[in-house]
Write a structure and sequence with these properties.
Elements (H helix, E strand, L loop, with lengths): L4 H4 L12 H11 L4 H5 L5 E4 L14 E16 L9 E9 L4 E7 L4 H6 L5 E11 L2 E5 L2 E4 L5 H9 L1 E4 L8 H11 L12 H6 L5 H9 L4 H32 L12 H7 L7 H14 L6 E6 L5 H14 L3 E5 L3 H15 L16 E5 L5 H13 L2 E6 L13 E7 L6 H8 L7 E6 L5 H7 L4 E5 L9 E7 L4 H16 L3 E5 L10 H4 L5 H6 L6 H10 L7 E4 L5 H12 L5 E4 L12 E6 L7 H8 L9 E7 L6 H11 L3 H11 L2 H5 L1 H4 L14 H17 L7 H10 L2 H9 L1
Parallel strand pairs: 4-6, 9-14, 9-15, 10-12, 10-13, 11-12, 13-14, 16-21, 17-19, 17-20, 18-19, 20-21
Antiparallel strand pairs: 1-8, 2-3, 2-5, 3-4, 5-6, 5-7
Amino acid sequence: MDLVPALREPLKQPLKSVLGPATAKVMAEHLGLHTVGDLLHHYPRRYEERGQLTRLAELPMDEHVTVVAQVADARLHSFASAKAPRGKGQRLEVTITDGSGRLQLVFFGNGVHKPHKELLPGTRALFAGKVSVFNRRLQLAHPAYELLRGDGEETVEAWAGALIPIYPATAKLESWKIAKAVQTVLPTAQEALGPLPAALREGRGLVPLPEALLKIHRPHTKADIADARARLKWDEAFVLQVALARRRHADTQLPAVPRRPRPDGLLAAFDDRLPFTLTEGQRKVSEEIFGDLATEHPMHRLLQGEVGSGKTMVALRAMLAVVDAGGQAAMLAPTEVLAQQHHRSITEMMGELAEGGMLGGAEHATKVVLLTGSMGAAARRQALLDLVTGEAGIVIGTHALIEDKVQFHDLGLVVVDEQHRFGVEQRDALRGKGKQPPHLLVMTATPIPRTVAMTVFGDLETSVLDQLPAGRSPIASHVVPAADKPHFLARAWERVREEVAGGHQAYVVCPRIGDEEDDPKKSGRKKSPEDDAEKRPPLAVLEVAEQLGRGPLQGLRVEVLHGRMHPDDKDAVMRRFAAGETDVLVATTVIEVGVNVPNATVMVVMDADRFGVSQLHQLRGRVGRGSAPGLCLLVTEMPEASDARQRLNAVAATLDGFELSRIDLEQRREGDVLGQAQSGARSSLRVLAVIEDEEVIAEARAEATALVAADPELEGLPGLRTALDALLDEEREQYLEKG
C-alpha cells in the first residue's frame, strides 16, 4: 500500500537485486512477494518471547526459557538408528553451567556440526529453548543460541528481552531468513504513503504508516505491536470497503428495466391459491425485493435464511413478479439433483399457473422449463426454443444455462441458489444474457455473520429470513462417541429402526464414496496428515451401506446416493426415497442442499468430525421438514477433549445458524472466507480478523461510503488509489466487477 518508487522496486532484478537472487526467487514463487512494498506488508504471524532470563537452578518444565551460561563440556556420540543403521547417527551432548546448576543440551543428525565447532568448553552464550526431561535429567533439545563475545551485560538484556517476529514461512525459506530480508528493506518504510485520509487517521489516533511498519516488524514492547496492528487493520478494512463502496456506486449508475407486478396478474393469482399464509419475515423480505425490482438500477440482493425458512417461496414470488412485468427469470442451482428438485417443487406450487400454452393452463399461466446437461437432445431443443421465444417465463437449471447456445427473449431476473458453490464467472456469464443488466438475487442457506456479509458481499444489500414457517418441527441433535461408548452407536441404529417402524425414513451420511477412484491408496494420492494421524480413511457410502444392510439395518430397504452416479440413476433413487419406497438412504453430501422429503425424520452422520460446522448444520436441515420431530445423530471417534468434539458439541447445542457460522469462522482461517472460497484470489486480509474486528469493519464501511459519495474518483487521495490498485490485482478486480 504505497506510492513511492522505492517501495515498488522489485526484489529481484537482472543487475542488482535488493535481496540475494535465490531468496528473491523463493519469495516470488512461494510467497507471492515481488516488490519491497510486498515484503514490508508480509507481517509476522506472531511473536516469540525468548523468555525471561532464568537461573538453571529454577528451570520450569515445558516452558520456553532463555539462559546465560558457560559450556562445561561437549561430547559427540555415535549411535545406530533406523535412519543410520550402521552406527552413523550422531548426537552432540553439551553440558552448560551458570554457577547455580547444570543443564544438558542435545543436538542430533546434521544439526551437530555447527554447535560442535562453536560450543567449546569455556564459551559463554545465550541459550533459548523448551525445557524437557530425558532420563530423569532436564535438557534443551536443539536450542537456539547466540555466542557472547566480551562482557556483554547489554547484549544479554537486549537479546533475552527481544520479541522475535515469526513470519508466515515456507519449507524453502525459514522465518528467520524472512526476518533478515525484512531488516534489509525496513529503512524504505519511511517512504510508505498510507491509504487513510489524514483527518480520519488523526481523528482515530492511529500512528502514521511508516511507524506502524517499523513497529510491526521490530517491536520493542507489546504496546508497539498493538499500535501497529490497530493502524494496519484500519488500512485493510478501509481499502476493502472503499473497493466495495465504489462497486455499489457504479451499480447505481447502470440502467435496468423496472419490473412491477400487475395487480391482477400471475403473482396475484399465485398468492390466491396458496394453502397457507406467508410468515411475517417472508412478507417483509418480499417487499424489500419488490422495491428493488421497481427501480431503474439492477437489484443486487443477498437473501439469507435458515434451512427451511422459505427462501424458495420468496424467490418464486420475485420471479413471478418479473414474468408479470413481461420479463423472464432464471434460477441457477449448483447440482442437477437440486435443479430437478426446484423444478418439481415450483411446478407443484404453481399448479395450472405453470402450464402456459397448454390445455388446462390458467389464464395468466407461463411455462416453467428445466435445463440441465444430461437432458435428451429433443427436450433440450424444445427448452431452448421456449426461452428464445419468451414462451417460458421461468427457467431452472444448472450451469448448462450459461452456455453460449442459451438465449433469452428478455432476461429480467437471475436467482442464484447456494452462492458459495457458484464461481463468479458463471454468474457473470448468465447476467450477460440480458439486453440490459438483469436484477440479481443470491440465496444462501449458510447464514453469514453480519461482518462477513459486509466484507465478502459488501456490494449486495442483505435480507434475512430468521423465522421458520409454521408446521416445521424441532430437530434434536446429539453427539454419539462411538469409540468411548460403542453401545451409543448400537442405540443409534435402534433409533433408526424405530423411526422406520413408525412409518418414517432415515438418512445416513458419509464423507466418502468408496469406489476405486476414491481410495487414496489406489489413486496414488497422498494421504492428508489428518488421515495419517487418525490411521484410517473416512468412512465410505458403499462400505457403510453394505455393512448396515448385512448388520444392524438388515431387512430394511437401504439405497445409496452419491455424486458419481449417472444423473438418471440419482434422480431415480431420489424419486423412490421421496415416494417412501426406500427406508434408509446412505449418501454423501449431495443431499446437503435442497433435498426435501418431509417423511425423513432421522439422520446419522458418520465421521461427523470430518465435516465443517456449517455443513453439518446444512445436512441437519434435511430432517424435521414435516410434522414429526427430527433427530440428528453426530457419530465420531474423536476423544472428548479434542477440538473436533468441541465443534460437534457446539452444533448439537444450538439450531441458530448465525451462531454456528460465527463458531465456524472463528475456527477456520480468515482466508477461507475472503480468499479462495469466494474469489479464487489470494486473501487480501493480513491482520484484519473478520469476527474480532467487527467494529473496525462497520466503521470503515461508513467512512468509505461517505468518502465515495463525495469523491467517487478519489481525486485527492493518491495513497488510497495506489492501495486499491494493489488490492484489486486483475483477479480480484474481475471478482468485484462480477459481484
